[in-house]
Amino acid sequence: MAPSVNDLLASNGDTIQEPNAKKVKPNPTSDPTVYDIHHQKFISDGLPSSSEAWIERARQVSAILAIDAASRDIENKSPRAEVALLKSSGLLKVLGPHAFGGGGQTWDVGYKVIREVAKGDGSLGMLLGYHLLWSTTANVVGTEEQKHRFQRLIIENNYFVGGAVNPRDNDLNITDHGDHLVFDGFKNFNTGGVVSDLTVLEGVFAGTEHHIFAFVPTEQQGIQFAHNWNNVGLRLTESGSVKINQIRVQWGDALGWDVSTKLPDPTVLAIPFATLLLPTIQLVFSNFYLGIAQGSLDFASKYTTTSTRAWPYGGDNKQSPTEEFYILERYGNFFAHLRAAETLADRAGLAITDIYTKHGEARTVTERERGDAAEWVASAKVVTTDTALRVTAGVFEVTGSRATGRKVGLDRFWRDVRTHTLHDPVAYKNRELGEYVLLDKVPEPTWYT
């Protein structure tokens, strides 16, 4: 019998390591001990006990990350220290069941936590958001046994979950080998895998159109990271490519599959409930876009009040930049649009929470209910994309040319938003919303809807 996830973790994956696997030199890593004083305080304080306390904990983490975010962005070290901070703060557990030591919060709170962290460091906001989605994947596409088993595994061990889940890459194949499956292939992108404890794999079961998700231990030679993430933004997310080389997965770990028939369990992978992973993560995106944009406005406002100079050749000269009409007008306009985007994102978060609260046990959500919630998410995606790009670029107009200095770090906010808003074309969200308005048509579930 093939080893289970728990067996592999206990043996550190030794049963599937390949001694001749090609070695790739990783990036230097950040040192978790730099946050020791914060680790000790968070552990001493314990987990927050209310929704507002969880959001406040996220604010505290965000403030810590913001202190040296610009220099860390330049150094581009693998974020082991930063993930360790997410662990000690408890934020990885915010959605976990109380029974296993989690925070017991709902997605609307989780989204706000992601947003707060992203204000201080967009990369860490993104990593946290993806982790929260992947760590709860079994809740949506797993059996009841798998749901509880993986929640317990992740929460009790405070694991950080990365993922090689990129549906546009169709060259990761899954084959049946009796009592186990073998995942083999390549993904152009994975997120956070290099610094993760578990990795979610996804691929197509050979000879079918069915996809299979499975958790596997990251520390094994069958997972070969290319360490090639060096993009313009979100530089600390370790989102480079990965080769999946003959990874064995016990049939019982294939999320939502019937071990006896080796077919998807129709009571578990019911459409449209099983497709809720997609609007859920699309709203993760919107919230870290929004958080990054809010962080840019906060950063810029501090810079303006301390470093920007009034323009002396306007004919209506002011002593201070905070008296300049155009500076006041721009900040006011940016602030208003961010407030509107935040209100919309919060409303969409409630729509996702309501779906899971009402239908999480029975998995009986209708196409209409799912579609209406998805269009709240699509609306948030459109508005946060447009607003975040506009604000993170526009803050230079109210800070001045010296704010473009690399060490200042104001550019990181725009670079982070610009990088991820290319994930899937927002134009399709606009079209989707147009069909919703004009034709009363809810979207067909896809990998991006």
TrEMBL record:
Residue span, Acyl-CoA dehydrogenase/oxidase N-terminal domain: 68-150
TM segment ranges: none
Domain (Acyl-CoA dehydrogenase C-terminal) ranges: 283-423
Pfam families assigned to the protein according to its UniProt record, in alphabetical order: Acyl-CoA_dh_2 (PF08028), Acyl-CoA_dh_N (PF02771)
Name the record gives this protein: Thermophilic desulfurizing enzyme family protein
Positions of the UniProt region annotated as Disordered: 1-31
Biological process, per Gene Ontology: L-leucine catabolic process
GO molecular function terms noted in the UniProt entry: 3-methylbutanoyl-CoA dehydrogenase activity; flavin adenine dinucleotide binding
Keywords recorded for this protein, A-Z: Flavoprotein, Oxidoreductase
Domain of life: Eukaryota
Organism (species): Mollisia scopiformis (Conifer needle endophyte fungus)
